[in-house]
Automatic annotation (TrEMBL):
Keywords in alphabetical order: Calcium, Lyase, Membrane, Secreted, Signal, Transmembrane, Transmembrane helix
Ranges for region Disordered: 236-255
Pfam families: Pectate_lyase (PF03211)
Entry protein name: pectate lyase
Similarity comment text for this entry: Belongs to the polysaccharide lyase 3 family.
Reactions performed catalytically: Eliminative cleavage of (1->4)-alpha-D-galacturonan to give oligosaccharides with 4-deoxy-alpha-D-galact-4-enuronosyl groups at their non-reducing ends
Species annotation: Phytohabitans rumicis
Essential cofactor(s): Ca(2+)
């Protein structure tokens, strides 16, 4: 499926708004200075959100566009956005649970996410309560909870505010839970469900100042749901401190322009800088091996700052050594890139990412060594395949460094052990439901005619090189 890449980031209320907002509730009164500069209502899609589990898509709810999680049996479905060094902020979103699969099913928002399994979250739980939780390496601890009517099909506005170790949550403008935790000082924002389906809209992030201590105890009685606000949601995000501690996927870039492609673009040795334009239109978007490439690179050429949309034919062909820098494939058709150079060719993929590759992302038909680093991939068959049945075979090598993988996926690398292929891995982060089912390195007996035969998998110190520390699961 094609990915919608236009995420809306705007300044609400006519510009950067600075004000003081007070919220009254059972946990007391508190106020904070707020500057709004980041929000999205998904009217232009969900670019920049990284997925981990579940089935996420932009959908229509009445006349509005929403971000929808539709897989009821997903134990943990999450999407993340923003920056890893955001610290003192509030995140707010409208959340509509549409179904619960278990008695403890939930839907809500996340904050200070360190990765796919470590963050704070405020969730609406089936049965009628709201919980403020700290989740570390997938294990959750309830910091605070309150009784709140939860009706599938109804919209609720959830908000989490953080200043230092103080964390507070509100539902429809009423402060209902509060807690203290020093687990995470910074992190991204997120939307999350567990054994539930839900729609999300009007996500907003605001920089906040210090929060005074609550003046009253947490509520012990039900807090009635209120109507969805009809005014603009105050929103913003401002980075403050600390570097990221995990390999969270980088935000996908928004296109600066669109370029319709009817014939293969020949890229000379001097290279092509696409300046983050989106190129699309060649081929049929299917798996046919006979499609023309969108870009054909001369030996030594550099293709950089390009977004490749669908359809994209057979992607990128490198006739010799080449560099693909900051290249993003929104929807891989046949292959994202095919490498055809000779035995001494070197190919570099640095940065960028690929989505929706039902078969292969990188196809290695020629000889030489391919290095893939600082790359992200999600929803794929094989990230790399050394050609199993090319009429002329080669000894090939592939090196993966600092690659973030988001399930679903099948295999990171398939190589031909009988031809002496090697695959090396370091700094690999695999996230999402089914992450540990993804094969790291599969070995085949390659042929020049017919079909190759799978003969093994896993590290062996001969063809497949990686240690436990090289692969991190989140």
């Amino acid at each position: 499926m094609a990915s919608n890449v236009a995420q809306r980031r705007r300044v609400l209320l006519g510009g950067a708004v600075v004000g003081v907002v007070g919220i009254m509730g059972a946990v007391g009164t508190f106020a904070f200075a707020e500057t709004t500069s980041f929000s999205t209502d998904f009217s232009n899609g969900a670019a920049g959100w990284s997925k981990s589990g579940g089935t996420w898509a932009v959908a229509t709810d009445g006349t509005n566009r929403v971000y929808q999680q539709s897989k009821l049996d997903s134990e943990q479905a999450r999407v993340f956005a923003g920056e890893a060094d955001w610290a003192g902020y509030a995140v707010q979103a409208r959340v509509k649970p549409t179904g619960f699969g278990t008695a403890t099913g939930y839907a809500g928002i996340a904050a200070r996410a360190q990765g796919a399994t470590s963050f704070y979250r405020l969730v609406l739980v089936n049965g009628g309560r709201v919980e403020l939780q700290a989740v570390k390496s997938g294990a959750s601890t309830v910091l605070s909870s309150a009784v709140v009517p939860v009706t599938p099909g109804a919209w609720y506005t959830l908000r989490v505010e953080m200043s230092g170790s103080t964390i507070r949550g509100s539902v429809d403008g009423k402060a209902v839970v509060s807690g203290s935790s020093g687990l995470f000082a910074t992190g991204r924002i997120g939307l999350t469900t567990g054994h539930a389906t839900a729609d999300f809209d009007d996500v907003a992030v605001s920089e906040v100042g210090g929060l005074p201590a609550p003046t009253t105890a947490a509520p012990t009685t039900a807090v009635p749901a209120t109507a969805v606000p009809t005014t603009a949601v105050p929103t913003t995000a401002a980075p403050t401190t600390a570097a990221p501690t995990t390999n969270a996927p980088a935000a996908w870039p928004e296109p600066t322009d669109q370029v319709k492609v009817d014939d293969t673009i020949e890229v000379p040795k001097s290279g092509l800088d696409g300046k983050l334009k989106r190129y699309y239109g060649i081929g049929d978007g299917g798996q046919s091996e006979r499609q023309d490439p969108m870009f054909k690179l001369a030996d030594g050429a550099v293709l950089e700052n390009v977004i490749i949309g669908a359809p994209a034919g057979d992607g990128v062909h490198c006739t010799g050594s080449c560099t693909l820098k900051n290249v993003w494939w929104q929807d891989v058709g046949e292959d994202a890139a095919t490498f055809k150079g000779g035995a001494s060719a070197t190919y570099l993929v640095d940065g960028g990412g690929a989505r929706s590759a039902s078969d292969k992302v990188f196809q290695h038909n020629g000889g030489g060594t391919l290095t893939v680093k600082n790359f992200q991939v999600e929803d794929f068959g094989k990230l790399y395949r050394s050609c199993g049945n090319c009429s002329t075979q080669h000894k090939r090598a592939v090196v993966f460094q600092d690659v973030t993988v988001t399930a679903p996926g099948k295999t990171l690398a398939g190589i031909n052990a009988n031809f002496g292929d090697t695959a090396r891995f370091s700094g690999i982060t695999i996230i999402g439901d089914g992450a540990e089912k993804i094969a790291i390195c599969e070995k085949y007996k390659g042929v020049t005619d017919g079909e190759p035969t799978k003969i093994g998998s896993g590290a062996d110190g001969t063809n497949c090189f990686f240690a436990t520390a090289d692969i991190q699961y989140q």
